[in-house]
Design the sequence.
């Protein structure tokens, strides 16, 4: 019988996380929308760190163009066009065979988001799609579920924890629906694998701070991995936001 009792000792030794962080993470249910680069990095962090339950959705299949940055997939997955969710769940179980993981082979829409998120405490944006982010935002704010907007392109990215009722939402930033042509994304701008890697480190840190109750609600983090810069700034709620209006403080 393997001794797994020291699995989390090094992370519990970090004072800001500690035993309380471990306990809260172990009872947390997290839903990740997307199993591309962001979803591969973040899902493996959550599983390796001991999240209570992980739900992950993606309707796409693995291709060779994914392999430089989508770290859970193999050449065999690309040759077989394996559904990303199937390959991700298979790999995640190799890190923690008893992990509670629910994989859904579908893109998330206004119709299925409620069933997908189910009883999750937190939603992670791992899409590369503004329309899908608005699906997440509108649902999460109305259901009072925190979520983390994460956008990456080229060598730059943005991470913004959204706490319904406590800080601005995505609609506060973009009152009109921007389409994917107006916002930098991987399709148009390309992507280096180090960019989602860095974004997810910031994203999972904010996720854990939400679970610990220490996140700062109005914070937006912008970074460039190439220039080696990151800065965070505060953003106010838009009093005319059609989604936030009437919710919270
Ligand atoms: Zn808003």
Sequence:
């Amino acid at each position: 019988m393997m001794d797994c009792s020291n699995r989390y000792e090094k992370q519990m030794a970090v004072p800001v996380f500690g035993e309380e962080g471990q306990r809260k993470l172990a009872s947390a249910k997290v839903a990740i929308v997307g199993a591309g680069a962001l979803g591969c990095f973040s899902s493996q962090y959550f599983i390796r760190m001991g999240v209570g339950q992980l739900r992950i959705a993606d309707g796409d299949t693995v291709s060779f163009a994914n392999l430089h940055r989508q770290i859970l997939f193999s050449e065999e997955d690309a040759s077989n066009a394996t559904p990303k969710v199937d390959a991700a769940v298979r790999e995640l179980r190799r890190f923690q065979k008893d992990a509670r993981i629910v994989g859904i082979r579908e893109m998330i829409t206004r119709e299925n988001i409620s069933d997908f998120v189910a009883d999750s405490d937190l939603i992670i944006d791992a899409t590369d799609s503004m329309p899908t982010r608005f699906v997440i935002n509108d649902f999460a704010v109305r259901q009072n579920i925190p979520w983390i907007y994460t956008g990456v392109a080229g060598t730059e990215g943005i991470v913004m924890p959204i706490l319904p009722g406590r800080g601005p939402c995505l609609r506060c930033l973009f009152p009109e629906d921007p389409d994917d042509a107006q916002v930098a994304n991987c399709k148009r701008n390309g992507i280096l694998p180090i960019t989602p890697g860095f974004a997810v480190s910031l994203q999972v840190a904010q996720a854990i701070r939400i679970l610990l109750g220490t996140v700062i609600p109005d914070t937006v983090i912008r970074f460039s991995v190439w220039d080696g810069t990151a800065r965070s700034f505060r953003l106010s709620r838009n009093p005319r936001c059609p989604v936030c209006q009437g919710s919270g403080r």
In short: The chain has one domain: 14-234. Strands lie at 29-33, 53-57, 101-104, 122-125, 147-153, 156-162, 219-224, 229-234.
